[in-house]
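COMPLEX REQUEST
Ligand: adenosine-5'-triphosphate
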Amino acid sequence: MDTAIEVTGLVVRRGKKTVLDHFDCAVPRGSVTGLLGPSGSGKTTLMRTVVGVQVVAAGTVTVLGSPAGSPVLRSKIGYLTQAPSIYADLTVRENARYFASLYRLGRDAADNAVETVGLTGAANQLVADLSGGQRSRASLACAIVGRPELLVLDEPTVGQDPVLRDELWAHFRRMAADGTTVLVSSHVMDEANRCDRLLLIREGVLIADDTPAGVKKAAGSDDLDQAFLNLIRAHEKVAA
Ligand SMILES: Nc1ncnc2c1ncn2[C@@H]1O[C@H](COP(=O)(O)OP(=O)(O)OP(=O)(O)O)[C@@H](O)[C@H]1O
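STATUS: Structure written out below.
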């Protein structure tokens, strides 16, 4: 497997809590890999580690062949956080153009990214005047505009309508087909079904690393929601 992200023996503590506990996983290049798990299970913490903004207590995280956080990775990774991280006093288009310029890309790239997230009609609006869902899409436009090798998306479709969610997922799939590795967290099972691989985390421990079909088979259910419940309960029994 050509690996984009390799995590070995990762331990992360936040406050007094061990959030990731000897965590191992590998994400194949050019895949859409879904990060699933209950609220507070450690998904955002793992993403923060991959993009190199999280202090780690132990373990190694290798991203596109370099240690996570290496300067060489900065222009290769796009990161969408849960809280929009763009300029509220600029318009959508100005934000996209600014982020495009950081990658030495021009106006066309910026306008394409704005179109991809369905915001062409709001391109001249100040980000401060957008709805929450629109703001999140404007942030997504800025994360994808540089055509990164690795795209890390923390719940990118929260608050979006079903048609737009479908279009965004089609776009993630197209990016992966073009070679981008997409690591995406979600709570939505129909989105999980669209991933090549799934990582299921519970309380900082990886309890499944498989294709959606493999997860269903291992859990004895054709329904992914039920499959995850089965795996979580089986894991609880072992831990008890
Ligand atoms: N800044 C912080 N200081 C201390 N603990 C934190 C901090 N941020 C998160 N945590 C804790 O780390 C754990 C994992 O949080 P994380 O945000 O990674 O979970 P998550 O799976 O992404 O959750 P969600 O699905 O709700 O976004 C939680 O117990 C949380 O309370």
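REMARKS: The mean pLDDT is 93. The beta strands are 3-14, 17-28, 32-36, 58-63, 66-67, 77-80, 150-154, 181-185, 197-202, 205-210.
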